[in-house]
């Protein structure tokens, strides 16, 4: 006597909060059910054979739909060893609103049992459907988000706006609509949202089902392209999840692009109903470095002696910046910053009068003259260029070359340069 494999099928109603699996349940239209399949290969009266290449097929009765919208469930199981047990679960939705009992039997097939392969039926499972009278107003909730798949570290915490977007980036939209009102029915709905001009729709998935391009609307608008999904019905507890992946054109024609998903349709009483999601925004990367040097002041002095070193005043000494920098580049390639004094210190009212002094760049134990230009900062690949901030005894300081007590206000001009790559 060879083994006697078994296939047991059970059900529970997740919408009603059931936790135990049995061979029957009560349900209403829109309820989410979960089936459990248990394949067992008992060794009782057996000769010790594994049940091989087992798979489960469940042709659902009219009124039940799998999560992917199909009427048939197929589950690969694989080999079931002697005295082995394998359990699989799937979720289905009640798609019929009338008083009826839906009876369902699954079957398993596998090799090395009687004949190859064999079909083994399960027990019956009964779903007692009670007709729901839809009398309450609809309440739709919409949540949505946008993510730059190509540059994912840039989006904000709410994921409704992404910055540093560039041409060729892959963008993901996720839009979820749920009818949260009991005994309500939303019908004839149409959901719309815009995507940029010349963007390529790579995929559009509704409730985990890929939708071919010809099955949804795509029409040109002043704002780019409007995507429309029609024939949407959402009864109590139903959820519509839409995922869109698109590629931006190589050359984007906008600095900031915003779309607000919107769904329109009929309320339970057939009056018009509209719901909107959050605005989804893309901001194009400006890819620039904003570089703002501050005026440097070495203070007022009654006399100057040769060998004196004058410090900057507090306005350009830590924690205050000598150069304010905003590095908005998306790709942080190495850069360096140099500074050069382009002329001597001259008295502002008498350009022939010069101050016997020159600027030195102090760094560690070295001090370099800036008359020929000197590197004062640099970054490595991937590093952001930040404000130039110096302590009092470092950075640019004024070295006095000769003694003088000639009064006046002396100025020079510095030339700052940002060098891409070094």
Provide a short characterization of the protein structure.
By secondary structure, the chain is mostly beta strands. It contains no helices and 36 strands.
The separation of the N and C termini measures 81 Å
Helix content: under 10%
Tally of strands: 36
The gross shape turns out to be elongated
Main β-sheet: number of strands, strand sense, barrel status?
Answer: 5 strands, antiparallel
Structural class: mainly beta
How large, in whole angstroms, is the Cα Rg? 37 Å
Average pLDDT reading: 91
Low-confidence stretches at least 5 residues in length (pLDDT < 50)?
none
Strand order of the largest sheet: 12-14-20-16-17
User: What count of helical segments does DSSP give?
Assistant: 0
Binned strand content: over 45%
Topology:
Blueprint: E1 6-13, E2 24-27, E3 32-41, E4 51-59, E5 64-66, E6 72-80, E7 84-94, E8 100-104, E9 107-111, E10 118-121, E11 125-129, E12 140-148, E13 161-165, E14 170-179, E15 185-195, E16 200-206, E17 209-210, E18 217-221, E19 224-235, E20 239-247, E21 256-259, E22 262-266, E23 272-276, E24 280-284, E25 289-293, E26 309-310, E27 323-327, E28 335-341, E29 346-347, E30 350-354, E31 357-363, E32 366-369, E33 374-378, E34 395-400, E35 410-411, E36 414-420
Parallel strand pairs: 2-11, 13-24
Antiparallel strand pairs: 1-3, 3-7, 4-6, 4-9, 5-7, 8-11, 9-10, 12-14, 14-20, 15-19, 15-22, 16-17, 16-20, 18-19, 21-24, 22-23, 25-27, 26-34, 28-33, 28-36, 29-30, 29-35, 31-32, 31-34
């Amino acid at each position: 006597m060879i083994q006697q494999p078994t296939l047991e099928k059970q059900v529970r109603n997740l919408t009603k909060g059931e936790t135990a699996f049995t061979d029957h349940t009560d349900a209403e239209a829109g309820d989410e059910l979960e089936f459990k399949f248990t394949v067992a290969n008992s060794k009782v009266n057996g000769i010790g054979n594994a049940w091989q290449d087992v798979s489960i097929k469940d042709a659902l009765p009219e009124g039940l739909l799998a999560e992917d919208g199909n009427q048939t469930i197929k589950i690969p199981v694989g080999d079931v060893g002697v005295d082995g047990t394998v359990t699989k679960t799937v979720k289905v939705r009640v798609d019929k609103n009338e008083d009826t009992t839906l009876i369902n039997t699954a079957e398993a097939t596998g090799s090395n049992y009687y004949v190859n392969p064999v079909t083994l039926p399960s027990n019956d499972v009964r779903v007692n459907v009670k007709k729901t009278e839809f009398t309450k107003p609809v309440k739709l909730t919409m949540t949505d988000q946008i993510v730059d798949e190509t540059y994912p570290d840039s989006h904000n915490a709410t994921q409704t706006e992404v910055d540093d977007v560039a041409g060729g980036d892959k963008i993901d939209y996720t839009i979820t609509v749920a009818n949260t009102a009991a005994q309500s029915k939303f019908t004839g709905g149409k959901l719309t949202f815009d995507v940029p001009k010349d963007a390529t729709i790579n995929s559009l998935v509704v409730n985990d089902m890929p939708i071919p391009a010809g099955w949804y609307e795509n029409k040109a608008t002043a704002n780019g392209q409007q995507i429309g999904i029609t024939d949407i019905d959402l009864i109590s507890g139903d959820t519509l999840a839409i995922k869109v992946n698109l590629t931006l054109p190589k050359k984007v024609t906008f600095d900031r692009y915003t779309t607000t998903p919107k769904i329109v349709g009929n309320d339970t009483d057939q009056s018009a109903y509209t719901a909107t999601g959050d605005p989804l925004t893309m901001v194009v990367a400006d890819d620039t470095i904003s570089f703002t040097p501050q005026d440097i002041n070495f203070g007022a002095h009654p006399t100057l002696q040769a060998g004196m070193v004058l410090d900057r005043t507090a306005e350009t000494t830590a924690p205050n910046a000598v150069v304010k920098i905003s590095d908005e580049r998306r790709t942080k390639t190495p850069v360096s910053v140099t500074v050069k004094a382009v002329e001597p210190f001259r008295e502002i009212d008498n350009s022939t009068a010069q101050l016997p002094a020159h600027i030195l760049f102090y760094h560690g134990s070295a001090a370099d003259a800036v008359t020929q230009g000197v590197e004062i900062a640099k970054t490595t690949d991937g590093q952001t260029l930040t404000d130039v901030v110096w302590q009092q005894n470092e950075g640019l300081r004024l070295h006095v070359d000769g003694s003088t007590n000639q009064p006046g206000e002396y100025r020079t001009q510095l030339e700052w340069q940002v060098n891409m790559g070094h």
